[in-house]
């Protein structure tokens, strides 16, 4: 269906019609494209490694189910109901109240997440080139560690690769929602899945891989602290791209007949599947080659090359793997970039090009703090957190997103009326999903906000 037909059906502000997603598959692909990203390939494995394995995964799963999923449904629901950017949505649904501040904090979060995210994406892009050159192919931890250190401690390489990433994302954003975001993501997700399965098979069949499987499957709760639980909840927010308005913005591009609870559930399950595949690709190899599971953000970049070095046609697979990681990161970065752009375009009436350029410049500035955090700015260390890179990561996942999620769940459970929620989630009773709508309303009222509140306070050592 052409965009023009669809756009007619969408309530718009003034005479400007909104560019929205054109097919249901496109909606799932773009939403999944936002959720799946470096969070699965890089963050999930490194946090799982650093926080003890299976026990962390179980807590993360619970948080995804009772915190991440309800917040995602909330965001899609209010976004589609208002069909505005994140700030305007809350202003429209709660006129004269302060709830729009959730959207404002979301725009801040988008910038801060992009600051470190583009840097990790920069490493991924650089690794495509390194893989082509064959430079990082080795099963010796010392060699792959040194190759990674060489990249991140070079200010020039870090900055230039970050700019390459930013310029690439901005050029897709400038094309618009359906032609840019939707078309990209629909093609790339299946390819990612396939290559991951191949890498998993290699990793699991390495001699000594069973220790990695045990690490992933045998929980040991003895080392779990409040901070661990907060990290797991932060990951649940980060993974599903919720708590800061991305999903409100995407919800505003959804079709009127989209089944929202079903869509969110499908996205959540697929996203979990990708994370587990990434865990299976990485941990058996970590133990097989004698790497340290708790090595932190560098984990992906020092273990994955070792896996590839140990398999036939490894170089080709490694090139493919990092290309796909770059693609996954692209879908996620598009959704982050879109939040401030949608605001400048919608509320301030800027042209899409002007908004894109302004956001690009802002991101390059904030991002440079993360890009240089292992070189020129390595001496700037925040106690208990780490460098600028770590600070932005910590601040967004562990504070801004949970706070955004807390207020969004309060908004859904306390401010919105059940009648409205029922109408929005059942698409005016055209869907047979009232049971799901009721379950959502119960959880978002009585479970989600309470849990976020407790985990946030205990994670921050308030009690
Ligand atoms: N979910 C993405 C990932 O896992 C990252 C991401 C995209 C994100 N948009 C977001 C995280 C919005 C938080 C909020 O890689």
What does this molecule look like?
With 463 residues, this protein is an all-alpha fold. The chain has one domain (25-459): Amino acid/polyamine transporter I (Up-down Bundle), CATH 1.20.1740.10. The protein is built from 20 helices and no strands. The structure holds tryptophan. The site of tryptophan has 16 residues, from helix 2, helix 3, helix 11 and helix 15. Tryptophan binds at residues 34-35, 37-40, 113, 238-239, 241, 244, 246, 332, 335-336, 401.
Quote the CATH topology.
Amino acid/polyamine transporter I
**Number of domains as seen in the coordinates:** 1
Proportion in helices:
over 70%
Label the overall shape. globular
> Which secondary-structure class do the elements indicate?
mainly alpha
C-alpha-based Rg, rounded: 21 Å
Give the biggest beta sheet: none
**Small-molecule components bound:** tryptophan
Beta strand %: under 5%
Report the CATH C-level class: Mainly Alpha
Q: What is the second-level CATH architecture? A: Up-down Bundle
Task: List the total number of helices.
Answer: 20
Low-pLDDT segments, ≥5 res: 1-16
Order of helices and strands: HHHHHHHHHHHHHHHHHHHH
Q: Roughly what is the average pLDDT, rounded to an integer?
A: 89
The CATH superfamily is identified as Amino acid/polyamine transporter I
**Terminal Cα span:** 55 Å
Query: Tally of extended strands?
Result: 0
């Amino acid at each position: 269906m052409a965009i023009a037909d669809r756009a007619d059906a969408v309530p718009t502000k003034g005479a400007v019609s909104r560019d929205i997603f054109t097919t249901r598959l496109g909606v799932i692909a773009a939403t999944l494209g936002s959720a799946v990203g470096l969070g699965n390939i890089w963050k999930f494995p490194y946090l799982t490694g650093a926080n003890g394995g299976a026990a962390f995964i179980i807590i993360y799963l619970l948080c995804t189910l009772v915190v991440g999923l309800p917040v995602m449904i909330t965001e899609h629901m209010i976004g589609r109901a208002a069909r505005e950017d994140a700030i305007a949505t809350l202003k429209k649904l709660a006129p004269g109240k302060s709830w729009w501040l959730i959207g404002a904090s979301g725009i801040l979060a988008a910038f801060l997440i992009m600051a470190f995210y583009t840097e990790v994406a920069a490493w991924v892009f650089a690794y495509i080139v390194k893989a082509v050159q064959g430079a990082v192919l080795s099963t010796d931890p010392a060699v792959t560690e040194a190759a990674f250190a060489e990249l991140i401690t070079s200010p020039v390489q870090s900055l230039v690769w970050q700019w390459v990433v930013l310029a690439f994302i901005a050029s897709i954003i400038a094309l618009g929602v359906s032609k840019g975001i939707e078309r990209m993501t629909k093609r790339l997700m299946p390819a990612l899945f396939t290559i991951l399965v191949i890498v998993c098979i290699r990793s699991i069949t390495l001699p000594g891989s069973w220790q990695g499987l045990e690490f992933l499957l045998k929980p040991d709760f003895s080392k779990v602290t409040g901070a661990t639980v907060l990290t797991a909840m932060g990951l649940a927010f980060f993974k599903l791209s919720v708590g800061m308005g991305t999903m409100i913005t995407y919800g505003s591009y959804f079709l009127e007949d989209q089944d929202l609870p079903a869509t969110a559930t499908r996205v959540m399950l697929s996203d979990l599947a990708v994370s587990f595949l990434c865990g299976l690709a990485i941990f058996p190899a970590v133990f097989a080659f004698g790497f340290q599971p708790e090595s932190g953000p560098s984990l992906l970049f020092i273990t994955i090359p070792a896996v590839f070095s140990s398999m036939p046609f490894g170089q080709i697979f490694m090139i493919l793997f990092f290309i796909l990681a770059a693609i996954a990161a692209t879908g996620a970065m598009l959704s982050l970039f879109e939040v401030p752009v949608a605001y400048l375009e919608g509320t301030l009436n800027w042209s899409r090009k002007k908004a894109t350029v302004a956001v690009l410049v802002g991101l390059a500035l904030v991002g440079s703090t993360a890009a240089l955090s292992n070189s020129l700015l390595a001496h700037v260390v925040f106690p208990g957190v780490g460098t600028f890179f770590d600070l932005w990561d910590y601040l967004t996942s562990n504070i801004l997103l949970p706070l955004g999620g807390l207020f969004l769940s309060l908004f859904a459970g306390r401010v919105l009326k059940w009648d409205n929620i029922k109408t929005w989630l059942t698409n005016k009773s055209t869907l047979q999903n009232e049971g799901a709508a009721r379950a959502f309303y119960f959880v978002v009222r009585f479970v989600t906000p309470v849990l976020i509140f407790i985990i946030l306070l205990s994670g921050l050592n308030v009690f």
